[in-house]
Amino acid sequence: MTVNHLRSYALGIAAALVSLPMYASMQAQPQNLNLVSANAELTQALNSKSTHQGQSITAKLTSSVKTEGQTELPKGTVLMGKVAQVKNSTANGNQSKISIVFNEARLSNGREVPIKATLLAAYPPALIGVAESTSSYMIVQPHHIPNDQKVQQDPGTLNHVMMKSAVQSNVSGIFLSKKHDINLHRGTRLQLAIAPETSSVSTASGS
Asked: How many C-alpha atoms does 32 have within 13 Å on its Cβ side?
C-alpha cells in the first residue's frame, strides 16, 4: 500500500513537472509595440442597459497617425471592434461595466488593417458651436506611448464613469461606474495608443 502510494505520488510530481513548460508556453508574453497616440470619436452611443457583449462598435479618427512600418491611418479612418463585456448596475449597489476592444482600422479605400489599440483618456462629446479652444482641458498625449502604460481616469471627467486600461491587456479599455449605469454618448472623444497588431497579448481584463 505504501509503495503504491509513493509510486502514485512520484508519478503525480513527474506529470506536474512535464506540464510546467506547456503551461508556461500558454501564457502570452508582453508585446514589444511601437505605439503612437491618436484621437478618435465614438460613432454610436454605448449604454450598459442596452449594450450587449459581442456588439460591434466603431470610432472615427479625428487626427492622422503613422504607425510602425509607415502604415498611415488618415483622419477619418474607422476603428472597428466590439464590446468585450457588459455588467449593469443594480439596486444593491453593484458597479456597471463596459469593456471594449478595437482591433481593426478600415481605410477609405476599404482596406482593413489589424491594430492594437489602448485607451489613454476619454472625454464627453464636443459641444456644437463652441470654440475649439474649449477642448484645451484634454490632456496632451505624447506621440510615443510606452509598452507598460497603464491608465486610471477618475470619474470626474466622464461624470460618474471611471476608465481603466493597460497596453498589455487584451481589451482597449474598461469603463466602470458605482451605483450608476454607464452612458457613453455618440461623439465621446477618445485618446488612444495605436500600433499594428503582431501577436496575442495578455488575457488580463484589467478588472
From this structure: 0
DSSP code at position 6: H
Measure Cα distances from 157 to 5, 7, 69, 163, 188 in Å.
Answer: 62, 62, 34, 9, 11
Cα–Cα distance for residue pair 1/4, rounded to 1 Å: 5
Give the tens place of pLDDT for each residue, 170-201: 999 999 998 789 999 999 999 999 998 764 44
What stretches of 43-149 adopt beta strand conformation (E)? Answer: 46-47, 56-61, 65-66, 72-73, 78-87, 95-106, 112-123, 144-145
Find all residues with CB under 8 Å of 102, minimum gap 6, and list them: 57, 59, 79, 80, 81, 115, 117, 172, 192
What does the block give as the cell for 9?
505520488
- pLDDT per position as a tens digit, 36-77: 999 999 999 999 999 999 999 999 999 999 876 667 899 999
* Cα angle value 65/191/70 (rounded, 5°): 15
pTM score over 0.70: yes
Give the tens place of pLDDT for each residue, 6-16: 444 344 434 44
CA–CA separation, 116 and 109 (whole Å): 21
- Alpha-carbon torsion 117, 118, 123, 124, what sign? positive
